[in-house]
Every structure is written in structure tokens, then in C-alpha cells.
Amino acid sequence: MSIESILKNRYSARAFLDKPVAKETLDLIFAHAQLSPSNCNVQPWQTCVVSGQTKDTLKQKFMETLMSGASPNPDFNWLPQYQGIHRDRQFGSANALYSAIGVAREDKKARQMAMVRNWQFFDAPHAVFFTMDKYLDIMGAVDLGIYAQTLSLIMADHGISNCMQGALGQFPDPVRELLNLPGERGILFGMSFGYADDSAAVNNTRTDRESIENAVAFFD
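Given the sequence above, the corresponding C-alpha cells read:
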């Protein structure tokens, strides 16, 4: 597939088949992702892929954390609230999702349950956590974004779907504890991935993109 075709056809999958990706395919995908560019070639990403029992244990720990009423305590600054057009687009994205699964705007409980699905990895067979040394701050975050996008495109080329999730960086403590990560390592965000369940209504969610007239300025 061409990159243009992948970008036109990809979407954030939120329902997956119970079908793990073969180990040799995972090795190939993540090896190719290592070719991602980074500032001064520092390659700051420390990538943690969870599957099988480790993923299931982490899912349970997330559920326990949520049920305890704990507040998010991300390693990095996820506090800014969207404003203006950015908030409008956020609402548009949420409306597309809830419309696809038939959840009314006033049904707060159903919306909360849909949000909780993030920490259940949408039942995907695999998830990846994008981590880096905390001192790298914004420079490291830029590089991790480049790496994650590269990884997503390579996955799509292999017929594997994914969902990027800022939510997976909201409660870093269970991840750090289970994966035995050092204190200086921060968890920026994550991504659930696997083979999409095309029969699931949630996977009919589609979002709009701004026109280049509003998003791009050309200067001659």
C-alpha cells in the first residue's frame, strides 16, 4: 500500500479480533520502526510491548486503579485544556465516536464506560507504551510522536490496526510497577493494536480533517 492510501483508509480501531500478531511479524515491524528520524539521532524511545498474561495483568491493575477513585498522575504535562477550534474538534471527535455506538449525549454512564475501554486496551491482543527519560521533556516528546506515527504506518502496511491513546499515560504507576521501569523513565502515551473487528459498530467511527487552506500556509 502507498502511504497516501494508508492515510486515507486508516482509522483509530477500538475493537479487535482475538488474534495475536505473530512474533516474527512484531519483530519485523518494530525493527523497521527503529529507522524513524529523531533530533540529533538520539532515538529517545524506550518501547514496551505488552501481550498475553502481562497485558491481562496490567488491564486488571488499571481497573483496580480506576475503581479506587484515583486521579490521573501522568509523568508529563497532560493538564492543558483545549480551547477554541481545538475544543470544537475534540467535541466533534467525541460526537463521531458516540454516534457510531449509539450513545446519547446525556447518557453519562455509557460515555464513562466507553472511556474505561481505553484501559482495557479495547480488547486488543497487544499494547505498546511509549516511554523516555523524563529530562528529555518536549524534545523527547517530539521524537516519540515521530516514532509512533512511523510505527502506525508500518503496522497498517501489514494489515494491523491501532489506536493511539493519551489515556495510557494517565496512570503510569501500574505500568512502572509491573514492567519494573526505573524512576527516571516516564510514560508518555500508548497504543493498542491488533487485527480490527470489522463487524464492531465502534469501528465505523470516522472523523473529519481540516482543509489545507486552513491548516497550511505557503510562502514563496
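The radius of gyration is 18 Å. Try to locate this feature in the C-alpha cell string yourself.
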